[in-house]
Design brief:
By secondary structure, the protein is α+β, with helices and mostly antiparallel strands. It contains 11 helices and 10 strands. Strand 5 and strand 6 form a beta hairpin.
Length: about 400
């Protein structure tokens, strides 16, 4: 039921699923409802452990966390991460080639069969029960087979490109692909469909690292020489990998600190207010109470009461890290200054393409003061997470 619940939440409320911070911001799909990966919309899932945010649209923050949380070890916790943070020559060459891919790809007449690491141009159509479904078709799409994404970086559902290797240019190939249970379109969530691909050609970068020269980088990048381009890429790569490592460390700390704490209960009034806020939003998105109940019954075979029960459990689970780091903030006397809050809001606006704080606040509540109180609260919890991360030890 929890996966089913998330599918419903995503389908009904993608406009209200911004994380307080730490969530991803990738495009969910190159075409509406197609094979795009909706991971970026799964804010409540990403919030555990990457952010301490509660579900957006749930504004009540009036509770004392110390009534419900007994903190365990939270300063100096030992964590480890296992990502690829390499910035050596091999990694640099790969990053430079990635940058060159941004300039563009061209047809490679010398390649006729798709390999595991090919860049391939296709037309595709998705069929559900033999019928092409809305948003499931596209033409002239250039795909990165190995990374299961478009060359622009838009990710696809697992297995989308998996059946292409071994097939030749000009072939039409069909195979089954399963949408995840938590996919944003309810008619596709958890469903197995058939994608038909027409392989148009295999592509190659318009330029490779081996063939680079001063003239090319000067034309396409803000540099004058190849050495300058290489130095710039090295700096960008090091910054990128450092950010990835900090992000992974922070996620590990949030998870460890939350696991170390004991949660004896939840602020019932706050939880219920958050349930009510979410239900009101879902009902409004569906077009009314009866339409929402009909949607739940038709698509998922559940009643509104059953949905509310599962939603309450989901909100309680999603509050655990928030409660723990709220308790830490109080114990350590942490405060959010106006300057820190302004910076926090600016980052949220930039990440989500929002032009003003007024517009940002409307995402979270109709009342601006309520939205501001909520965001200040989440900013404080995230500040506590940063504090614990700074004090952690690396194994």
């Amino acid at each position: 039921m929890k996966k089913r619940l998330l599918s419903i939440v995503l389908a009904m409320m993608t406009a209200l699923t911004m994380a307080g911070c730490g969530g991803k911001s990738e495009d969910s799909s190159a075409n509406d409802g197609g094979a795009g990966n909706t991971e970026s919309e799964q804010t409540s899932e990403e919030a555990k452990p990457e952010s301490t945010s509660a579900a957006a649209g749930s504004m009540d923050v009036d509770y004392d966390p110390e009534k419900y949380v007994t903190l365990g070890e939270y300063l100096g916790v030992k964590v480890s991460v296992s990502g690829d943070y390499s910035t050596d020559e091999k990694a640099l060459v790969a990053y430079m080639q990635e940058k060159l891919g941004d300039v563009g790809y061209e047809k490679d007449d010398n390649q006729t069969e798709v390999q595991e690491d090919s860049i391939v141009n296709v037309d595709y159509t998705g069929y559900q029960d033999g019928v092409a479904f809305d948003g499931g078709a596209a033409t002239d799409q250039t795909l990165d087979v190995m990374n299961n994404c478009s060359v622009e970086g838009t990710g696809f559902i697992d297995g989308f490109t998996a059946g292409l290797p071994g097939h030749k240019v000009g072939e039409t190939v069909s195979y089954e692909v399963s949408f995840p249970e938590d996919y944003g379109a309810p008619n596709l969530a958890g469903q197995t469909v058939v994608f038909e691909f027409k392989i148009n050609y295999i592509a190659k970068p318009s330029m490779t690292v081996e063939d680079l020269d001063d003239a090319y980088v000067a034309e396409h990048f803000d540099v004058k020489t190849l050495d300058e381009f290489k130095t710039q890429c090295q700096k960008e790569l090091e910054e990128k990998k450092a950010e990835e490592k900090v992000k992974d460390l922070r996620a590990a700390v949030i998870q460890k600190v939350t696991e170390n704490a004991t949660i004896s209960g939840y602020p019932e009034d706050v939880v219920q207010n958050r349930v009510n806020a979410n239900i009101s939003s879902y009902v409004a998105s569906a077009g009314g109470e009866s339409a929402f109940e009909s949607f739940l019954s038709s698509y998922y075979g559940i009643t509104k009461d059953a949905f509310e029960k599962e939603l309450k459990e989901s909100i309680e689970k999603g509050m655990e890290s928030e409660m723990v780091f709220f308790a830490i903030a109080k114990k350590e006397n942490l405060e959010v200054t106006d300057e820190e809050f302004e910076e926090y809001c600016a980052k949220l606006m930039e990440k989500n393409g929002i032009s003003s704080k007024e517009e940002l606040f409307k995402v979270y509540a109709t009342d601006a003061s309520e939205a501001e109180a909520y965001l200040r609260h989440i900013c404080l919890c995230d500040q506590a997470a940063d504090y614990c991360t700074d004090m952690s030890e690396r194994e």
